[in-house]
Amino acid sequence: MIEGLLLSLIIYSSLCFNKAWIFILLLSFVYLVRYRKRIIALVFICLITLLLLFRVGTLQLEEFTSYSFPLDKVRAITGVVREDSRIDSWGQKRCVIKLYECNLSNGDVATAKGRINVTYTGSPLYYGDIVTFSGKLTDKGFQAKDYKLVNRSSLNRTRSRFISFISSKINNDLSMMLILGITPNVDSEISLLARNSGNSHILALSGMHLSLFSAILVFILKPIFTNRYAKLISLSILTLYILMIGPKPSLIRAYILSLVFTIFKLEKPIDYLVICFTIQALFFKDSIMTLSTLLSYVSLCGIMTVPELLLNAIDEFIVIPKLFITPFLVTIGALLFTIPISFNFFGSYQLSSILTSFIAGIVVYIYMLLCILSIFSSKLNYMLDKVYTILVFILEKGSYFKLQENLNAYYTLVISTLAIILIARLKRLCK
Questions:
Q1: Least confident piece of the model among 58-62, 125-129, 193-197
Q2: How many angstroms separate the most distant Cα atoms in the chain?
Q3: DSSP secondary-structure letter at 178?
Q4: Residue 90, phi-psi category: left (phi > 0), alpha (psi -120 to 50), beta (remainder)
Q5: Domains by residue range for the chain, with CATH
Q6: What predicted TM-score, i.e. pTM, was given to this entire model?
Q7: Which residues pair with 144 in a beta bridge?
Q8: Sign of the C-alpha dihedral computed for residues 154, 158, 159 and 160 taken in this order
Q9: pLDDT, tens digit, 9 for 90 and up, residues 95-114
Q10: Do 71 and 138 contact (CB within 8 A), yes or no?
Q11: Please, which residues have CB within 8 angstroms of residue 194's CB and are 6 or more apart in sequence?
């Protein structure tokens, strides 16, 4: 469990305060102790630690925006898009750009560095687009009145056509979220219900959805090819799919993790996640310093450590079939690690997802399957509407519970979890 906790602290401190190096060194120490008798492993751990220290330090510096001129003098900014634009409040779009230069009111061009949030109105912008925005620079970001697309790669032009084609087949908010990873307006019905019921993670395009795509592809290809070739072809199609919908941070994490599980044979599940984070930090730096990445990794840290401990502990007191209890334990594990972050960023959190997450997840799986099939046949739209109604009903029931606006309920959950584990350990020792 210590590895998962330290990895969570590394990611959290990378995004929130400049102390990540402490937890990187502690995590390295844990692995050095574990592999203290293997010389090659020790050298490799030290090398990776140095690379990770350098990379995380560099990423933290890039997050800070700095100017050598007054903010009110800026009339336009130019930079490269580092996250696909998403719909914000009032139908506006928001994207993150890495600054190249600024145009000042006196006609001068000045250099600037760092990343900045830009709010604008217009067509979607994609990762890698080079754009010039004209408008007003504020402490919270850049409010654009107009923009000019300076350069768009051939890949992004293909992406634009692909997204337009799929969008013409699926035209509701939930389908756009689950198939294309396009977040609807934050005030849309499904977004509000998911947030208020604590189930936003189920709707975010991530490993759960990627595993479903992979399973469908392998199921279709297996009668034609051997199991191994079916998986390889499936992986190739998933690679193309990710290129088409764009480098969504949590999707990149899911894709890398699936590769790590395929290539490596490690002692603990959490070790796969540590390697996954290292690879993503070293080679996909633009996707690592985001809140969605933080929540994605931290929830998996909880899922890979807490449920097994709780399941073993509960077995000491009562025998419950894993099929019934595991979904609840998985949700508890995710909540234990994500609630502090949710509370820090949003000021509240929801515990009802312990009851609704598993059921809502199954309904989302069914909806995704129907959604994929509906691309080829519009006759399934009626069934999609019915499943959507069921999902809304579940999320509404979860929303009836009051949002927690202090950490008292979280502390109770932590203490209860630790008490169950410790009492079970003591009971085992007394036998």
A1: 58-62
A2: 81
A3: I
A4: left
A5: 2-63 (no CATH), 71-152 (2.40.50.140), 160-430 (no CATH)
A6: 0.81
A7: 135
A8: positive
A9: 888 888 888 887 778 777 77
A10: yes
A11: 200, 202, 203, 395
